[in-house]
Amino acid sequence: MTKTCLITGASRGIGRALALEMAKQDYMLALTARDKSTLESVRDEIVSVLPSAHVEIHALDVTNYEQVFKVVEAVDASLGGLDLVVANAGISVSRPVGVGAFEEHKSVIETNVLGLMATAEAIIPTFKERNQGQFVAISSVAAFRGLPKHSSYCASKVAVKSYMEALSVELIGTKVKTTTLFPGYIDTDINRHMASRPFLVPVEEGAKEILNLIQKEIKSSTVPRKPWSVVSQLMKAVPESVLAKMS
């Protein structure tokens, strides 16, 4: 049976690559992002390779919280019921604390945390009513250790981790699934400015692994699972002096 999926932040990076991979597996897709023209390019790219693919697009800034509810409701109706929602929209800022970048840091929290929460609030009642569905949150290995110059990004990903843990408990007794994924260094714009990107994998490879974990309904996993399942734990033991030198 063909499944339906909404992906936020689908115009580039992991969201775009995941949309391409899911289209190959016959998912009916609704893609959202702030830039509609870029979304159109993603849709056209998919349809050029897979003419029969069902891809609809919606311009959406997930910090426009009221609009999140409206778009999710519209997509659920147009696709005949959502099976899967991937809350992927996210931004990052590489600025130290105390250099006048509060507004930038605030935007990270509003997008990565409140945007995801709005997305969850918009779809979870429907999933619970139908007693089915899967909500996927894209966190980061940055959730496992605060990194210099990325304070707000790390904080946002910790928040996503805790939020999803709470949501998972709340859904016990239902058939609604949650999946929280913690990508390592997937080759995307969000990390290309960094001097060091250990264990870097191409975005296409990362997207394939993400889809595999989603389809297996894994509750929580790093991406890729190895070596990050081990490295993410070792990160907690790295001395602050070493982190300072790395920055």
UniProtKB/TrEMBL annotation:
Q: Per its UniProt record, what InterPro entries does this chain match?
A: KR_dom (IPR057326), NAD(P)-bd_dom_sf (IPR036291), Sc_DH/Rdtase_CS (IPR020904), SDR_fam (IPR002347)
Gene3D superfamilies referenced in this protein's UniProt entry, alphabetically:
NAD(P)-binding Rossmann-like Domain
Q: Which residues form the Ketoreductase domain?
A: 3-189
User: Which controlled-vocabulary keywords does the entry list?
Assistant: Oxidoreductase
What is the organism of origin for this protein? Litoribrevibacter euphylliae
**Family, per the entry?**
Belongs to the short-chain dehydrogenases/reductases (SDR) family.
The name of this protein is SDR family NAD(P)-dependent oxidoreductase
> Where are the membrane-spanning stretches?
none
Is Oxidoreductase included in the keywords of this UniProt record? yes
For this protein, the record's SUPFAM superfamilies field holds:
NAD(P)-binding Rossmann-fold domains
> Can you tell which superkingdom this protein's organism belongs to?
Bacteria
SMART domains, sorted:
PKS_KR
Short name of any one Pfam family annotated for the protein: adh_short
